[in-house]
Specification:
Elements (H helix, E strand, L loop, with lengths): L6 E6 L1 H7 L4 H6 L9 H7 L1 E9 L9 H5 L4 E2 L8 H21 L4 E3 L3 H10 L2 E8 L9 H9 L1 E5 L15 E2 L11 H13 L2 E2 L6 H10 L5 E2 L16 H9 L3 E4 L3 H4 L12 H14 L4 E3 L18 H10 L4 H19 L5
Helix pairs in contact: 1-5
Length: 355
């Protein structure tokens, strides 16, 4: 009997759900409440083997009609205001605390991992593996001292920006149709951050970073270029998606792209419409593999941070996704690469051996 490959996921926002409703975190994590996309029972049901769990500081000034705007392209939303370190750091620490609590509350079913060996051991034994990720580096001051503290807590991946400006660089706005070339590149603090992450073996995530910042990371970094949850601009011309030129740079670095399940970044017309089956995911996968090769593509769901296709629904629906991939002609060896092996090999190329 063929063993179903577990899926290791490049991005989710489950910690934000816990942050917003801490009094009910036990039910949110340990039971299937039917809300959101992730919880321990649905992960186990769908063969969700683990992933990057994002620590993300939400912007208080996002427009209330953002979903309406994104359902009716074209749209171009203004960038939110920057968030300073004194505001961001306590929130980030609270979210790191929720991740640590998830590990304890799972009673051995979930583990924060700091090495690829730990990731592989978890998948082999049925333990859900987690990587601590910062989506936007606002919680790290320009002196970068906090990076060492978060690393000691388990941080192994960081995106310098979300879709707003920071002291490190500039995120892309939510805009369709739009190029990712939307502003200036990394600040000197951002360049220092990338170089220190390289030395420490912390992965740098390019999702949400504008094109000038992407170019700066490419010129500075001695690690593979990675976009944990981004799609192909040639299919869906959103500012959040990657141009073929960027894909070539990622390929040449030995990097990786995780396909984002957010419908607004999947559908070719940019609409947040969930009723189009798995075809948009398959189109992006085909395009990315044609430009990157089959060893440099995986998944970056954006679970609990976006609207996903109704055919998928949530983590319990990952079996339906695997079936769609098989029907599309992907054999067992390719499925294993896409589901987790490509991520693990990318991290072997990125993390320091002592991590």
């Amino acid at each position: 009997m063929t063993k179903i490959p577990l899926i290791f996921d490049g991005h989710n926002d489950f910690l934000l759900r816990l942050l917003r409703d801490p009094d009910n975190r036990e039910a949110t994590w340990l039971t299937d409440t039917g809300k959101g996309h992730l919880d321990l029972p649905r992960m186990q049901q769908g063969g969700f083997g683990g992933g990057f769990f994002a620590i993300y500081i939400s912007s208080p000034d996002l427009p209330h009609d953002i979903d309406d705007e994104m359902e009716n392209p074209p749209y171009s939303l203004p960038l939110p205001q920057p968030i300073d370190v004194t505001t961001a750091q306590p929130v980030a620490l609270a979210m790191a605390g929720h991740l640590k609590w998830m590990e304890r509350a799972s009673e051995g079913r979930f583990k924060i991992c700091r090495s690829v060996m730990e990731l592989r051991d978890c998948l082999a034994t049925g333990i859900i593996a987690a990587i601590m990720h910062l989506e936007g580096a606002e919680a790290i001051g320009t002196d970068l001292d906090a990076l060492y503290l978060f690393h000691d807590m388990g941080l192994r991946s960081i995106g310098p920006v979300w879709s707003r400006p920071t002291v490190f660089g500039h995120g892309v706005p939510f805009a369709f149709p739009s190029s990712p070339d939307t502003g200036p590149g990394l600040t000197q603090a951002g360049k220092n951050l990338v170089q220190l992450c390289n030395r420490m073996g912390i992965m740098v995530d390019l999702s949400h970073l504008n094109e000038a910042g992407f170019n700066d990371v490419a010129s500075l970094s001695d690690s593979p270029l990675v976009a944990t949850h981004s799609n192909a601009h040639a299919i869906t011309p959103s500012s959040r998606n990657l141009t073929d030129r960027q894909l070539a740079m990622i390929r040449d670095s030995g990097g990786m792209v995780g396909v984002n399940f957010a419908t607004g970044f999947l559908n070719s017309d940019g609409k947040k419409s969930a009723d189009r089956g798995f075809d948009p995911i398959l189109r992006h996968l085909d395009h990315l593999m044609s430009h990157l090769g089959e060893d440099h593509v995986g998944f970056g769901s954006d679970f609990d941070g976006a609207q996903v296709p109704a055919a998928l629904r949530d983590a319990a629906g990952l079996g339906a996704l695997r079936s769609a991939l098989s029907q599309h002609g992907f054999d067992e060896a390719l499925l294993t690469k896409l589901c987790h092996e490509n991520w693990f090999k990318l991290l072997e190329r990125t993390w320091k051996p002592e991590n």
